[in-house]
């Protein structure tokens, strides 16, 4: 008798059964902690290939066709259909959920479905897929990480691998064992609604970030209970369609297709990715789902991909241009190399048609067996036969402080500073700040699509920290941080205005932008109010792609591309206040105007900001360790003198004097701004860090003989105060 473990720990099951038997008065020899295998395929000590051979030999045609069938959880007419039709895989599509939506309910749902699947004669476990594309994003309370475009900006493959592991742990805590991620698409046209799912516009970035596969699966699939099957998607060329049209046509030579879009999949295969999902898009007019050369000859044979190929959601239906699917379409896809079809609804019709194609000889038995070998191999390697149910020890990792800290780190590292005039950033924590914008206090906007629903949505969709909450948490006195979504109430008394603007959530084709790519009217109105106040404006752009902002940029003192940061908005404020200097670099070229699209590195066009662009904060000079001048030391003093002033601002001059005995070749002057912000400066060069200004000499006024003086002037917001600038000579 083989014990079907009720948790992924046979020893625990054996002990529980012993107790149960004892309670019934039945005595039982201490059961072996290992399950007694009735058949070779149930013996984990055997090589996987032998287990597959043994199982395949025992399978009926219904068993085999069922393994090639993936259905949406909510499409089950009755849960018993899962067993009756021998269905091998279930998924939750973008809008598929459970109620109440929490990790425990997801785990209970998974376990219930799995128990049904295990009830079939051969007890083949089902595998459950979901789009955990930036965290376990279907689960309320899960950690939502930056979308891939932000992770591309980090240029940190090791960080992405750690994120893959964290997501796998949260998924394992809900039982779900297959992630339709990472998208290894190379986004070549920012009009594409899935640009944010791409790590970048050049193959080097998605290729580098294929480390996500290793994070998700582990170095060896199934090596530990949190190992989850990863999916390289969407094969091939989804990000290269003409016009950036989602599910469109990628018109490239084979050499271009191979050089731009294939490298990330080559890397994923090298990393042992267990599944590949095909793209809805076409290559030179032929749908990927019908492309035997690309799928079987290139992916499986040339690249040596030994996992299984899954179709995209109802993608088979598109092959003949008519709604619904036919036997002919199924045969085309399966013969092209599709091993599992994401039907996802009418599984009865699908199985009837598939069986018809096989019985008519239009799909060979060898093809069916090959598909089953691929699928079953991954199920065995993943450990599903030994650990088919949720390992509840991981459930507490969902939304854990550790994972949120990792996400916050990723948010910080993904911020790209594109402009910082006059060193307006970093902001002083004691500054009087105005915060505005529709995305300043909106978890939904900062998370984007694929968040608690396929399209995502604005509002408090899940637990997390908004950018505004992060700003207030970091401020010395939160009461000095005023927020109004539309910028109403801003005036010249504020040191700066932070406008958090950009896009509202979308996914896939609903995010395509064939026309204008600028800010929406609400954002433009908010920015106009801030501009009218005369306060320096810092723009934080929350978007899934570059936007057409060249016309507005001159009005902004600073621009920080935040991308779609997810639940840890305090990673943005960490950078705004300089607790972490920005290190992100553009993963995509930033257009000068939408008419430039597509615009990519090396195409000869002049963008607003090039691929790889990213500023940081100047390092603050180390304070003079010995301010007392020695004879002959290079010493200087700086004398501050306030000049004219007006409501909300003032002008001042600082005179630098060489008080040493030798000549100075340069000097720098530093002082605390006390909340004021320098708006203009002459005869020196300014940097600002942690609320302190440092001015270095210009090229023409650095050399000072002993006793000689030089001066610089500036205008500033706020009140002058009586700073006593320090001076350091060189
Ligand atoms: C969607 C997407 C794909 C996703 C699948 C399942 O349409 O194209 O990325 O994995 O369906 O939700």
**What's the overall geometry?**
elongated
Mean of the pLDDT scores?
92
| Beta-strand proportion | 15-25%
Kindly provide the name of the CATH class of the largest domain: Alpha Beta
Distance between the termini: 85 Å
CATH topology term of the largest domain: TIM Barrel
The named CATH superfamily of the largest domain? Glycoside hydrolase, family 3, N-terminal domain
Low-confidence stretches: 1-34
Bound molecules: alpha-D-glucopyranose
Using only C-alpha atoms, the radius of gyration works out to 30 Å
Mind telling me which CATH architecture of the largest domain this is?
Alpha-Beta Barrel
Number of domains: 3
Please tag this protein with its features:
five-stranded parallel beta sheet, 25 strands, disordered N terminus, alpha/beta, 730 residues, TIM Barrel, binds alpha-D-glucopyranose, Immunoglobulin-like
Q: What does this entry look like structurally?
A:
- With 730 residues, the chain is an alpha/beta fold.
- The chain folds into three domains: 387 residues, Glycoside hydrolase, family 3, N-terminal domain (TIM Barrel, Alpha-Beta Barrel), CATH 3.20.20; 182 residues, Glycoside hydrolase family 3 C-terminal domain (Rossmann fold), CATH 3.40.50.1700; 94 residues, Sandwich (Immunoglobulin-like), CATH 2.60.40.
- It is 28% helix and 17% strand.
- The chain contains 20 helices and 25 strands.
- A six-stranded mixed β-sheet has the order 12-17-16-15-13-14, sandwiched between helices. A five-stranded parallel β-sheet has the order 4-3-2-1-11. Strands 18-19-24-21 form a four-stranded antiparallel β-sheet, with no helix packed on it.
- The N and C termini lie far apart (85 Å).
- 55% of the residues are buried.
- The N terminus is likely disordered.
- Bound molecules: alpha-D-glucopyranose.
- The site of alpha-D-glucopyranose has 8 residues, from loops.
């Amino acid at each position: 008798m083989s014990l079907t473990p009720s948790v992924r720990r046979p020893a625990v099951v054996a002990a529980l059964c012993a107790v149960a038997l004892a309670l019934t008065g039945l005595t039982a020899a201490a059961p072996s902690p290992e399950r007694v295998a009735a058949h070779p395929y149930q013996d984990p000590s055997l090589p996987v290939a032998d287990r597959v051979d043994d199982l395949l030999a025992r399978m009926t045609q219904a068993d085999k066709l069922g393994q090639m069938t993936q259905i949406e959880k909510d499409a089950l007419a009755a849960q018993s259909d899962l067993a009756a039709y021998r269905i091998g895989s279930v998924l939750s599509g973008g809008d598929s959920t459970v109620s109440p939506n929490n990790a425990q309910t997801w785990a209970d749902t998974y376990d219930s479905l799995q128990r049904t699947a295990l009830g079939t004669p051969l007890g083949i476990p089902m595998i459950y897929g979901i789009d955990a594309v930036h965290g376990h994003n279907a689960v309320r309370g899960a950690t939502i990480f930056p979308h891939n475009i932000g992770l591309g900006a980090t240029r940190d493959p090791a960080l992405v691998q750690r994120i893959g592991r964290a997501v796998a742990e949260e998924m394992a805590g809900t039982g779900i064992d297959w992630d339709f991620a990472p998208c290894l698409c190379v986004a070549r046209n920012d009009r594409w609604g899935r640009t944010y799912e791409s790590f970048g516009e050049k193959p080097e970035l998605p290729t580098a970030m294929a480390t996500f596969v290793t994070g998700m699966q582990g170095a060896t699939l199934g090596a530990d209970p949190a190992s989850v099957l990863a999916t390289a998607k969407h094969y091939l060329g989804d990000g290269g369609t003409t016009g950036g049209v989602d599910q469109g046509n990628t018109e490239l030579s084979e050499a271009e297709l191979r050089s731009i879009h294939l490298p990330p999949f080559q890397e994923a295969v090298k990393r042992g990715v267990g599944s590949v999902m095909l793209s809805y898009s076409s290559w030179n007019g032929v749908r990927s789902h019908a492309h035997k050369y690309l799928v079987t000859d290139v992916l499986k044979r040339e690249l040596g991909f030994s996992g299984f190929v899954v179709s995209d959601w109802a993608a088979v239906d598109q092959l003949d241009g008519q709604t619904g699917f036919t036997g002919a379409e199924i045969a085309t896809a399966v013969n092209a190399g599709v091993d599992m079809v994401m039907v996802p609804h009418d599984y009865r019709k699908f199985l009837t048609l598939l069986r018809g194609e096989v019985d008519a000889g239009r799909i060979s038995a060898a093809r069916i067996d090959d598909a089953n070998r691929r699928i079953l191999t991954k199920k065995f390697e993943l450990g599903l036969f030994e650990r088919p149910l949720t390992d509840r020890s991981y459930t507490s990792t969902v939304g854990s402080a550790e994972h949120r800290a990792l996400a916050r780190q990723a948010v910080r590292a993904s911020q790209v500073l594109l402009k910082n005039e006059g060193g307006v950033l970093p902001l002083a924590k004691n500054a009087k700040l105005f915060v505005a914008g529709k995305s300043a206090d909106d978890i939904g906007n900062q998370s984007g699509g694929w968040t608690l629903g396929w399209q995502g949505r604005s509002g408090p969709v899940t637990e997390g920290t908004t950018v505004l909450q992060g700003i207030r948490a970091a401020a010395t006195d939160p009461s000095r941080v005023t927020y109004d979504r539309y910028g109403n109430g801003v005036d010249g008394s504020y040191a700066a205005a932070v406008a958090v603007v950009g896009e509202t959530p979308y996914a896939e084709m609903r995010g395509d932008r064939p026309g204008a790519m600028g800010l929406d009217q609400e954002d433009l109105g908010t920015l106009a109010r801030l501009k009218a106040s005369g306060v320096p404006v810092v723009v934080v752009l929350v978007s899934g792609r570059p936007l057409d902002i060249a016309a507005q940029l001159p009005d902004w003192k600073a621009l920080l591309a935040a991308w779609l940061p997810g639940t840890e908005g305090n990673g943005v404020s960490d950078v705004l206040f300089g607790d972490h200097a920005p290190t992100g670099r553009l993963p995509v070229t930033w257009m000068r105007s939408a008419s430039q699209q597509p615009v990519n590195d090396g195409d000869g066009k002049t963008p607003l900001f090039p691929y790889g662009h990213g500023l940081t904060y100047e390092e603050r000079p180390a304070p003079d360790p010995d301010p007392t001048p020695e004879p002959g030391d290079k010493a200087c003093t700086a004398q501050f003198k306030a000049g004219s002033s007006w409501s909300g601002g003032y002008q001042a001059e600082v005179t630098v004097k060489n008080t040493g005995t030798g000549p100075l070749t340069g000097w720098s002057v530093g002082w605390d701004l006390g909340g004021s912000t320098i708006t203009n400066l002459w005869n020196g060069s300014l940097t600002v860090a942690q609320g302190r200004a440092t001015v270095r000499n210009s090229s023409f006024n650095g050399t000072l003989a002993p006793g000689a003086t030089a001066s610089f002037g500036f205008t500033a917001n706020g009140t002058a105060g009586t700073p006593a600038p320090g001076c350091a000579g060189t």
